[in-house]
Amino acid sequence: MTVAFYGVELIYIWAITIWLFWSATGTYLGKLNSYPSLTSLRILCMLASLMLLVSFIGIRMITLTRGIEQGVEFFVGYQLLFVMMLLCFSGLTSGLLFQWITNRYLFVDQSHMAVAYVGESMGCLFGGLVSILFVYLGMNQFTSILICAMCLMIMVYYRIEPDEQKINFTTILSTGFLLVFIGLLFMSKPLDHEMIRWKHPHLLLSYDSPYSRITVTKDHDQFTVFENDILSYENEGSSAEILVHLSALQATSFNRVLITGGGIYGILNEVMKYNPTHVDMLEVNQVLRHNITHTLINPTDLQAWIHKNVLTIDETDPRRFLKKDRSFDLIIGDMPEPSTAHANRFYTLEYFELCKQHLSHHGIFAFSLSSDEYFWNPFLASRNASIYWAIKSVFHHVLVLPGMKNIFIASNSPLSSNPKILIDQFIDKKINARFISPAFIEYTYDHYKMTEIENQLNAALIKPNTDIHPVGYPLSIMVWLVKFFPQLVQFHGFFLMNGSWNINMTILLLIFLACMLIFARIIKKSPYRSLLLVFLAGLMGMIWEGLLILYYQITQGILFQNIGLLLTAFMIGLGFGAWAFYKILYLKNRAICDSMIARCLFIGIGLQGLIMVGMIQLNYSANLLGIMILLLSSGCFVSGIFVYSSRIEEQVSHITITTNNNRAILMSKLYAMDLLGGCVGTILGSLILIPFLGFTWSVGLLSVIAFLSICFI
Prior knowledge:
With about 725 residues, this protein is of the alpha/beta class. It is about 60% helix and about 10% strand. Helix 1 packs antiparallel against helix 26.
């Protein structure tokens, strides 16, 4: 999905939300057939398998269906419509499949609803581990989808009963599909490349990595690299030259240079023209490092630099690397734009402080941001200003150079803005560049344009971009959205995170809490109380998962294998919590009543929030084990609330283990509400709480909601 929509984070947040919505709808609609026949269940398995494959191919064909050229975005409304259509049948069939299988399980095995939830959680855990394994093995997306489709097709053989004819039309049909899938599996790699050629006819290489899809095309002597179908580099471009030379001309020495991202995209070649003593190049994406480097950098030069100990390539996150005790004369950053919560962490005050700590006395730090040379819309101006104030708060001297990409150059020593001095250095160093010239340097350092940009940045009333309050992230999203909805400029004032922001949010929070208390009094004795509790559990679970994983990434860096462990910890918590609280709540002669256990679950979520607020205020650098424990406990609390809700519904509705039809209907309602809660939590956490309120306020609000949820019990 990220590839089809050019890596815009907003799209895949919507995609997750839409998937959860359709799954919830399918689960709820499934109650219309409380006990499906085996034939119906097998047909649904085949349909779900085929819909998964159809959805994947449809996503690959999204831009082709409208005749859009490569790299051109079509209207956001059409994007949402395509996502809704493509995920509709897959989501509906998956939700319906869960409900039907659960119904048969409850009827045949005479078990409780909580046990079905344990099985669902363990399925999510297994699926997550398998998907991580697929990526770790370098498996392309088409192969992964085929394997998943085959697993669904194999479910057709589910529980062939002794008196049933083993060979029937469903098994024959599924066997035929399986044979076709096996044939496609052997040809998956060339087929995957053929589908990629739909948009890249000059395809040379393509690899799926944990971070992005990397596609390299070659047309005559021109190499072009796309990450998630966004143009990242082409060997006839000038972006690497502009960034390196305009910043390197400010440096006084080149004993040690650090390149954080973009090294293989021409930056390394340009840096080497200054004959540095040693260069550290960071590239967290191992697939990019091992498979693309020798295509874009001369292999002979690369091996010579490494052999002479002039170059060291590290596969690690820049923030993690900068915790080592090293000093650099020049740090050049070419990280992705701050259009996602993950990328924004390379443009925050805390990251700039980390870079400053590892610069020599006259060291230079430089990076670039996409911009418009002559006109900034209000959101772009505010985004750039938030990053400008962040770096200005750290370094004594900052220059912002105009262009289609603004070059930010910072140092604790004075920087030269006199083009004549820089031109003399450029000539003395005898730099061989295709694009940079004395005339270009003089044009870039035009006094009028530099003064105009500086005045515009200084006039912006915006908070600095920080880890805990990522102002740049939502503003980058608005820069993208305003292309489709120009009228959003009228709401620019709402997005200004100035001093009145916290006051306004405090008032809104108090109103929200008052409404929640009133609603609690009304609904406390309502038959919909358990559905609301499950909804709140799903909502808080998704928000907590996003908050904790993002906080870990900010403090420790983006490490794919560790993120997989964190997701696994949450799923283990869901499964273990459902099993443990099922045993507790259905235990006879308990000393603690059901309502007291439920209150303890919500209090546990609230206390976790208070613990995290303390971690944030103390600038605690979260380690892997600590975040895993918090995610594990979060999963336990969320699944425990689900088990409690199913328990009270059974008591209120007088449902016993023999009244399976009613229990199946109840299970579909509860699970649908759990998915809807996750759907709302995805949007609320990713697009509202973290971007606009920051971590402290988001966690605090989550704790307050958890404590107030006790009123519903």
